[in-house]
Amino acid sequence: MAARFFGRYEHSLDDKGRVILPAKFRAHFERGGYLSQHVDGCLAVWTEEAFNQQLDAQLDAQQQGRNQRNLSRVWSAGSEEIEVSTSGRMAIPRHLRTYADLDGEVVVIGAVDHVELWNPAAWETKVRPSEQTLIDGVDPE
């Protein structure tokens, strides 16, 4: 069965650019995982199974034209294999920290089939309208 992730956690980057992966997520990354640039300016942490599905999608996208090939190149160049230490720390390469504007605090969320790492201000900006829709009881269309 595919891994499923949910919940929101707040952690900090340490001096070496590492963040702690929440304990409830760690079992899925005991043999490592993958970190990539993701939509909306966050980083995605993938299990091997989910990352392989993303690779297949990128292969398909490359056949869709120049723009899709370039997006696929950017995604591939912005992806890294990662290890999670026994204490749950995961190193985030500098170029990926720059992409997601991670410096200090990090919001770690479960995003169903992967984990996302967000700059807290960016997270707030992205989710506030959706939270308000939920508060207002309006069905999104």
Outline:
The chain is α+β, with helices and mostly antiparallel strands and 141 residues long. The chain is built from 5 helices and 8 strands, in the order E-E-H-E-E-H-H-E-E-H-E-E-H. It has a 6-stranded antiparallel β-sheet. A two-stranded antiparallel sheet has the order 2-6.
Write up what this structure looks like.
With 141 residues, this protein is α+β, with helices and mostly antiparallel strands. Helix content is 38%, strand content 24%. The chain is built from 5 helices and 8 strands, in the order ββαββααββαββα. A 6-stranded antiparallel β-sheet has the order 1-7-8-4-3-5. Strands 2-6 form a two-stranded antiparallel ribbon. It is globular. The mean pLDDT is 94.
Question: Characteristics of this structure?
Answer:
two-stranded antiparallel ribbon; 8 strands; alpha+beta; 38% helix; 24% strand; 141 residues; globular; six-stranded antiparallel sheet
Q: Secondary-structure element sequence?
A: EEHEEHHEEHEEH
The assigned structural class equals: alpha+beta
3D shape: globular
Instruction: Report the biggest beta sheet as strand number plus sense, adding barrel if it closes.
Output: 6 strands, antiparallel
The chain-level mean pLDDT equals 94
* First and last CA, distance: 30 Å
Spans of at least 5 consecutive residues whose pLDDT stays below 50 are none
Helix content: 25-40%
What value does the Rg take, in angstroms?
A: 16 Å
| DSSP summary: helix tally | 5
Strand content: 15-25%
Number of strands: 8
Placed side by side, the strands forming the largest sheet appear as 1-7-8-4-3-5
